[in-house]
Amino acid sequence: MSYPADVLIPADVEELAEGTLLYAQEAWWLRCSLNGSLGVVSKVLALTGPRAGQMTMFSNSEVLALNSDYGWEIRVEHPLHFDLESSPLAAVSVGHAGSVGIWGHIYGDESAVYCISPDGTEVASVLIPWDAKVRHPSFKVWVTDKKTKQAIGNSPLFSK
Q1: What's the pLDDT band for 13 if we cut at 50, 70, 90?
Q2: Which of 28, 40, 97, 150 has the most beta carbons within 10 angstroms of its beta carbon?
Q3: Kind plus residue range of the DSSP H or E element containing 127
Q4: 147: buried, middle or exposed (CB in 10 Å: 19+, 13-18, 0-12)?
């Protein structure tokens, strides 16, 4: 399934908001951050295409297509009720097909994502300390319509 994209060329990918959905080089990407030994580094996570799952730093010369009408949603199948670190999921409602919809920012590495700030309204570090973030080895990313807040399509954009 293809998704539309309105073309916009930002000056610098690092200035894009955390969680921005991007379309470039015939693939979809998420603007996110990687927490590593050098601290939090601005990155872009490849969701589709030949580099799916890889994180990269776009150079300023690369053209990014940004569609401001669309957002994204991360879903995990089941909250870990027995795990105290999963408590931030308590306020998240059950979405389509029994999945739990988690809105917000994404801090990722190659094996998991940290699902935080369920309503996507605040910077994650303000809401939940880093050691309390929920780590899920499997997840689904859906494209959503920002006006209706509904998922687009009958399958996720990316699954891991």
Answers
A1: low
A2: 28
A3: helix 124-127
A4: exposed
